[in-house]
Amino acid sequence: MGKLYASITGVQGYVPEDIITNADLEKMVETNDEWIESRTGIKERRILKGGRATSDMGVEAVKILLEKTNTKPEEVDMLICGTVTGDHIFPDTANSICYKTGLTNAFGYDINAACSGFLYALVTAAKFIETGTYKKVIVVGADMMSSIIDYTDRATCILFGDGAGAVMLEPSEDGYGLQDSILRADGVGKEFLYMKAGGSAFPATIESVTAKEHFASQEGRHVFKAAIKGMSSVIADLLEQNNLTQEDIAWLVPHQANKRILSSVAENIDFPIEKVVMNIHKYGNTTAGTIPLCLWEWEGQFKKDDLIVLTAFGGGFTWGACLLKWAYNA
């Protein structure tokens, strides 16, 4: 048997029906459509309502993914979910998704790496394929950011939305799939993008709720600069490590943080903006959901043998990049 690669054999996304437009936000905070779009590229974002939770979005993506890949639920060996908005502190949201989709032979767990969560989960899942341990592993990236956003805080409410995506990983001996990855974390950005209360360091109290410490908090300038530097440098390192140039890459699929960040990253690495996948104008920043949602929407444009780079940057800070050789024509 030749070397095994973890190949993406299917992808599916899910976004809620309810939409919050920039015009809607004008009624909540001091802002306007032109200001939001010029600084972020966002026109609208999806919001999950009706008492549903992050796992419910993951379930919708996984159900259709199983159909698309002709996979029976009992054939799935494992499911990893990247999320910062799990249904509960425990049990894991992956566990709930497995239960709700009938993955009776699969085990799963969550990975919390903020906006880098899908990349961390993808690389982790790939190791179970590459070692021959499992044959079918699902990776989910899902976040219900509306559950931790203060809609009176202009710094965060304009940015985030809800959504989920999932990919199927299967072994390939033909060289298709994950070729290489570089993941990073340094911890220096903890207080620039985080949710202060709710963990063991700051358990929930009446005071923490009153002080709005259970909402996401961001210091935009620090995050903006660090995101551009982090993604630009790790992409450059990944290409050099694989003896590739920008001309070899068919598509760059970045975490959808902010259109100005994505444009700056492309400029820094001299990558053509028309080959940078973006859907931030429709969905905003769905944290761990952004990359799989991009893969889902661009699946029809990807061609077999395309070299694709995924990259992300998240709170903490965490960041990284992955190199994929695309396995199929949709």
Q: How do the strands and helices of this protein lay out in sequence?
A:
Blueprint: E1 5-14, E2 18-21, H1 22-26, H2 33-40, E3 44-47, H3 54-68, E4 78-82, H4 93-101, E5 107-111, H5 117-130, E6 137-144, H6 154-157, E7 162-172, E8 177-189, E9 193-194, H7 206-210, E10 217-218, H8 220-241, E11 251-254, H9 259-268, H10 280-283, H11 290-298, E12 307-314, E13 316-325
Parallel strand pairs: 4-5, 4-6, 11-12
Antiparallel strand pairs: 1-7, 2-3, 6-7, 8-13, 9-10, 12-13
Helix pairs in contact: 3-4, 8-9
Protein architecture, described:
There is one protein chain. The protein is α/β, with parallel strands linked by helices. It folds into two domains: 5-176, Peroxisomal Thiolase, Chain A, domain 1 (3-Layer(aba) Sandwich); 178-325, Peroxisomal Thiolase, Chain A, domain 1. Helices cover 32% and strands 26% of the residues. It contains eleven helices and 13 strands. The chain has helices spanning 22-26, 33-40, 54-68, 93-101, 117-130, 154-157, 206-210, 220-241, 259-268, 280-283, 290-298; strands at 5-14, 18-21, 44-47, 78-82, 107-111, 137-144, 162-172, 177-189, 193-194, 217-218, 251-254, 307-314, 316-325. Strands 1-7-6-4-5 form a five-stranded mixed β-sheet, sandwiched between helices. Strands 8-13-12-11 form a four-stranded mixed β-sheet, sandwiched between helices. Strands 2-3 form a two-stranded antiparallel sheet. Strand 4 (78-82), helix 4 and strand 5 (107-111) form a beta-alpha-beta unit. Helix 3 (54-68) crosses helix 4 and helix 8 (220-241) packs parallel to helix 9. The longest helix has 22 residues, at 220-241. It is globular and about 60 Å long. 51% of the residues are buried. The model has no long low-confidence stretch (mean pLDDT 97).
